[in-house]
Design a protein that fits this description.
Elements: E1 18-19, E2 27-29, E3 32-36, H1 49-62, H2 77-90, E4 94-98, H3 101-112, E5 118-122, H4 127-136, E6 139-143, H5 148-158, E7 162-166, H6 178-187, E8 191-195, H7 210-213, E9 223-227, E10 237-241, H8 243-252, H9 254-257, H10 264-279, H11 282-300, E11 312-318, H12 320-332, E12 335-336, E13 339-340, E14 350-355, H13 362-375, H14 377-380
Parallel strand pairs: 3-12, 5-6, 5-7, 7-8, 8-9
Antiparallel strand pairs: 1-2, 2-3, 4-10, 9-10, 11-14, 13-14
Helix pairs in contact: 1-10, 2-10, 3-4, 5-6, 11-13
Length: 382
Amino acid sequence: MKDWRRPRPAILRRQRILRGATDTENASLDGRPQSIWCDNDYLGLSHDPRVCEAMASAAKRYGASASASPLITGYTEIHQLLEERLAAFTGRDRALVFSAGYLTNLGTVQALAERGDTLIEDRLNHASLLDAARLSRARCLRYRHADAADATRLLQEHQARLILTDGVFSMDGDTAPATELAAAAHAHDALLLCDDAHGIGVLGAHGGGLLEEARLSQVEVPLLVGTLGKALGAQGGFVAGPADLIEHLLQYARSYGYSTALAPPLAAAADQALKLLIDEPEHRARLRDNIEYFLQCAEQHELPLQPSRTAIQPLVLDDPESALAASRSLSEQGFAVCAIRPPTVPEGTSRLRITLSARHTREQIEHFSEALAACCPAKLEV
C-alpha cells in the first residue's frame, strides 16, 4: 500500500481559488490579481460572448445536464450536430463525443485491446493514455520519447497491434513523429491512435492539428482523439475515425455507455467554438504571432526553454523547490504560472509550464518575459 502519510512537501499540490474568469490580465487567484500564463484556453474562445450565449441558450432549452447515458436519453440533436461538424472538420467518417477527454482515451483503448494483446506507447504520453493501457489489461511496452525507430523495433519484436501517442505532448510542447509512426503502423499491420488534444486549434493550416499539418488521413491514422476543453474553450472529448471503428466504440467503450452524456450546454458551446475556429482564422493567427514573439523575447533574455513550436513552452528548473520558488516569485509580481513537479513529470525535470493564448498582448508578453528572466537567475548562467 502506498504511504499516504509522508508526502514530500515540495511535490504537494493544492487547489487555488479562481474568482471570475481566467482572464489574461485581471483574474483573481487566491484573492490576488493575476494574469494567467498556465491555462489551456489557447484561442480565448471560452470567453467569447457567442460561445457563452450558445451555452446559455442550450441550458434554457435542455437544462443543465443530459441526465442520462448517451445510449439511453442523454443524446440530443446538439450532440449529433457537434459530432457531424467534428467529423467534417477532422476529415474523418464519424466522431463520437465523450463527457471528458480522459474518458475518451479510457473507453477507446479499453474497447480495442484486451488481455493477451500487446500495445506500445510513447514514454511521455498523457496520463489518460497510460491509464487506458492499464485498464485494457493488455501488455504495454513504452518506447523512447518521440522515437519512431524505437517504436518500430518494439512492433517488430513483440508483434504489437496498437500504437498510442500524444500529438502535442502536454508537458513538453513538442510533437510526435506522426508520419514515421503511421508508416511503421502500416508496415506492421498495427492501429495508430493519436491524442492531439493540444494540437487541434493550434497546428495545421485550418487548425486541424498535427495530423492535418502532416497530411495524414484516417487511412494512415485511424483514430484521432481530441478535446473540447482546450482550444475549443468548452469541455469534453471526442474520437474520430472510420465509421465501423466508431460504431465499435459506441457499442463497447464502457466510459461512453456507462457515463452521463456531455451536458447539452457544453456541447452547444463546443459546437459554437468550432464554428468560430473554422470561420475566423484570426484567432489562430494571433496565437501563432504570440508564440513567435514570446520565443523572441525568451531568446533576448537567454531563457533556456525546451524546444517547442506550440503554445506550451516549458522552462525546466530541475528540482521541485526551484520550480515552486519561481512560481511564487512570479505570482507575487502578478503572473500565474504553475510549477509542475513529479509525479506529473519525471524526477529531475520539474518545470514552469508556460502556455500562450491568443488573448495575450505583446506588452504582456514583454513584461512576463522580463519577470521570468528575473526569477530564474541560476539558469541564465548555464
